[in-house]
Design a protein that fits this description.
It contains 9 helices and 14 strands. The radius of gyration is 18 Å and the shape is globular. The protein starts with a strand and ends with a helix.
Length: 256
Amino acid sequence: MLEILRVPVLRDNYIFVVVAADKRAAVVDPALAEPVQQLLTSRGLNLALILHTHHHSDHIGGTPQLLQQWPAAEVWAAAADRERIPLQTRGLVAGDALNLFGRSMQVLDVPGHTRAHIAFYLPPTDTEGPELFCGDTLFAGGCGRLFEGTAAQMWNSLQQFAGLPGNTRVWCAHEYTEANLHFAFSQEQDNEALKQRLQQVQDLRARGIATVPSSIELELATNPFMRCDKKDLQAITGFQDPAAVLAEIRLRKDQF
């Protein structure tokens, strides 16, 4: 079985370390090298793989230093972003079927936040549940800013996530949940599930407890960016097309 470790860095980033039984490790979106080096060294782990969801510096910044210590590690990232992620050893495209330490892993093309954003999905097995490393496309209670993509692209990307099993654990790359849910509640004050989640998250954060991972089921119930096809949000925004709803609530969130 694979173990997933969460490493908090910078102000609100998470790096994820996936550990195999044979002491091999994969690192997802290493913003910094030092915390990863300390973790791997303390546990006697060998870095075999670095996975990048997109090119932003707070997702790839630690890679050069990690490769200095583990030069044999492979770097997997979007083939379309080879210029902006130059250290990659394997370029990935949507639909690629990969093997992560004996477990199946699929590549999803999820533009919106950036033009070449990808996500990594591990389908369930007989003994392990489904996992999603979604970078900055989907956040707990929110979604990434539309830096290089359109609202329609983001909606299509989020719909890919919506089709995954409800118990899929969502490993998003930032601890934005409380702020996201405050905004979400300002839009959907009659959403009882959202109200309960906000209260729970406020309690967790007051005690310094992480709110990641989330789940697809929870996001579908409480995340407005996953709910743009719902009548309540359509009425609130004045639009019926889900992409137009998303564009409006993204604009509101940016100004919140």
